Amino acid sequence: MVDAMNKPRSKTVKPKDKSNSISRLFLNNLKRDKLALIGVVILVIFLIIGVFSESLAPYDPSTRHYNEEGKIRRLEPPSKEHPFGTTDIGRDIFSQVILGTRTALIVGLLASFLVTFIGSTLGIISGYFGGKVDAIIMRIVDLFYAIPFIPFVIVLSAVLSPSIWNVILAVSLLSWRTVTRLVRSQVLSVVQRPFIKAARVSGAGHGRIMLKYVLPNVIPLIMLEMAFNINAAIMAEASIAFLGFGDPTKQSWGQILHINFVTGNSRNAWWWVASPGLAIVLLLVSVFFVSRALEEVVDPRLRGR
Amino acid sequence: MLNYIARRVGIMLLMIILVSTMIFFLFRAMPGDPTAFVVDPSMAPEARQVLIERYGLDGSLWDQYKVFIKDLVKFDLGNSFFYGRPVMKIITDRIPATLILMLTGMIIAYGIGVFGGALMAWKRGHKLESAGITIALIFRSAPTFWVALMSIILFSVNLKWFPAQGMRTSGYTGETFKEIFMNLDFLKHLILPSVVAGLYFIATPLLIMRNSMLEVLSEDYIEMARAKGLRENRILYKHAARNALLPVVTAGALFLGSAIGGMVLLETVFSWPGLGREIVQAVTRHDYPLAQGAFIIMSSLMMIMNLVADILYAVLDPRISYR
Questions:
Q1: Do B212 and B252 contact (CB within 8 A), yes or no?
Q2: Which ipTM did the prediction report?
């Protein structure tokens, strides 16, 4: 660490705060890092939209809108009544994007929770016990690294019926591998520390040591991975829905783009393409800025720039 | 070294069999008539019966599995329902298109990423650094298929610079590799999709190069080079960048492996006749043998890339010992 501190160009190395709690450090980061603060604000807005999407959406997403002459408002560019324009059969895109927020958030949060839960449990077990257990789990991880993500999800959604639960399942099945590897490597160094030996000598069982002594030391890493996996899951859901293997009963950003693409309107209705995509980018970038602030908390070498 | 490679190849072959086994049982777990997944349901009953016996579909699941593995070892992946041709033939026809698109995207990403990353580390704390990171992250956060759709609207529809889809102008049918890929028309079709692929890939080389450079720049020999009074550019590219390249190269091979799956989206948007588009169409058409075969080949390609990454690492870095 001394090496990292003495880097020639990092002049502002602040003295370390003694009360190094994660949330405190994170809040300090927010004060310094404007981008992370913006990220938090955008994220909160998305969460509010996601929770209250039904009351926030001005129209029903599948209602066809007509103009004064009684004609369908086919492919109208953004206007006052329809801020994101209309689809080829006169549906309001703004409402669809608002309702899609919920799907993205549900998939992102649930899948990333599942992924980090499975991944860190296996990672801790693997790193703590070592030996044969470690070898077996690591070979399974290797096997899962050999499965191409999107093709697997497509095949899985062809086998199972299309629903967001299956999308969550598919994403979780393939993403835990990275978490397991990262958590395991950190656990390997944690179990070498004296307090683990002390706990063992004082008669603590394996379960207790893993939960009370190992887990707290890898929690920051797990939280960081969870943040990264939110993005991966949202992106995966959008990709699957875009290809037409998503949940047909749920509005989602990927599905809006799917309908746009298969009806052949991706070249003439820029508003229809742009709005759901911008929503994805905005959400993912904000999650990323927040997780980067979190990363600085987890990895002290990144601090003090 | 040879021992190491031989052992890794052995493990890889075992993994391919395991992944194939998994996909075999996944398809058999589907509800409905199991014969419908291997033999086209729309065939004449007598011809169908012959094939059902050929694949052991009248026998137990275990018998079917044995036939499947035996065929797999002989590179026989069955017949496509839709094309009525061997799956292996269709796939080998599609692979070059996918690989060319992917490699061109990779070259673009690496060309910009390596130099950009080196420069960003050199100018640490400068506005250029944060701008570079932000741009890379935005392109990483933007879904590839969306960037592709938007770039079609901008560059093909509005500016009319590039064709919007396909690999060749429609109406053209080439037979040999040379006829299809070695000409200007193909190049024109390649530019837009490969730039979009490059933008998606770029975060990896850019950020890894930057991190690796930051590490190298704190080494003693850089201080030494400065003390000798060498020019900035010379230190940057001759002394620092060369040593920082190793992790970028190995990450590249690994990333190439994972990018094979990502090509699915890009090929769909650009109607690029590659392996990724084929697997999507196969699943939508319920052409199960083709979907299964394409999946097995894609994951094999991925494993080969991972292996290449590991071997490259061992060859390039003398500190790594291979056992």
A1: no
A2: 0.80
